[in-house]
Fold:
Amino acid sequence: MRILFLFLLTLTQLKAFATETITFDMILWGDKIGILTISKTIKPDGNEYYELNSHLKAKVLWIERENTAHMETTFKNGKMISCYQKEIEDGKVKRWNRVSFDGTKYNVEGYKGKRSFTEAPVFSVALIYFQSMQGAAKILYEPEAEFCKVEKVDDNTWEFKGSDGSRNVYHYKDGKAVSMEFHVSIATVKLVRVTSP
Structure:
C-alpha cells in the first residue's frame, strides 16, 4: 500500500511539473517557410520557465533568407525575473538581449549596450502564446528588451508595435493563441497553430 501511495504521489508531482509545448507553422505568401515551438514548464520551485525556438527559410525579393531565434524567459510569483533572446539571420547574430533581476532593478545587456529599469514585467511575449493579453496595458518585448503598449482590436485580438518597426497581431480562441501576424517592412509572416488548443 505504501509503495502504491508513493507511486501515485510521484505521478502527481510529475504531472504538476509537466511541460506544455505549442507549435506554429510559419507562412509567407501562402507557403510554409518555417516552424516555431514554445514550451512552458512549471519548475519544482514554482517558477514558470518558457523556451521558444524558431527557424525559417524563405526567398524574399529573389534573395534566400534564413533566420533562427532562441528565447528563454522565467517568471516568479507573477513577475519576470530573467530572459535571454538571440536571433541569427543568414549566419550572423542580428540581435541579442539578456535581462536579469538583481533584487532591486532589471539589468539589460545586449546588442545595444547596457542599461537598467525598475518596473517589474508582469506580461511578456513568452506568456502570450499561452494566455490572451486581456487586461494587459503593456508587454515586455524580449527581442528588444523593451516595454510596448498593448492595443485591443476586438474581444479575441490584440496587437503591439516594437521599436524595430514590427507590428505584431495575436488572435485567440477561448483564451489560447491560434494565429499571429508579424508585419515587417517588406512582408507579413503568419503563424498558424498546429497543436490542438
User: Anything to note?
Assistant: Confidence is low (pLDDT under 50) at residues 4-15. The two ends are 38 Å apart (CA to CA). The first strand starts at residue 19 and ends at 28.
